[in-house]
Write a structure and sequence with these properties.
Layout: E1 2-5, H1 11-22, H2 31-36, E2 39-45, E3 48-57, E4 62-70, H3 79-93, E5 98-100, H4 108-113
Parallel strand pairs: 4-5
Antiparallel strand pairs: 1-2, 2-3, 3-4
Length: 127
Amino acid sequence: MDYVLDPHPPEADLARLFARAWGTTPDRPFGPVLARSLAHVGAYAGERLVGFVNVAWDGGIHAFVLDTCVDPDFRRRGIATALVQRAAAAARDRGALWLHVDCEPHLADFYRACGFRDTAAGVMRLA
């Protein structure tokens, strides 16, 4: 598995991965999002994008893990963990002091195993 920092994959590759991982694709293009990200990491099996994580940030010391996903055919191989570890290292190297993640309850153990600790958080759907 090859891990690439800030790969800027083609829109079609990200859409394909998101469709495989989540059964849906975002309704907005990825390019503008990735252009504003602190970092993002892709996992590649040969030329195929099989995993991805994005690190958004506030422009200061806080960064946020978003969109961690792995193609179902490649799960249970440590790819998601490696993506998050590389994302955390990139965020630290680029000046973030805090890395946040919000997740659904079934992912809490995964993120704890990656080094996150539980905190109180909230989310509001705006649309």
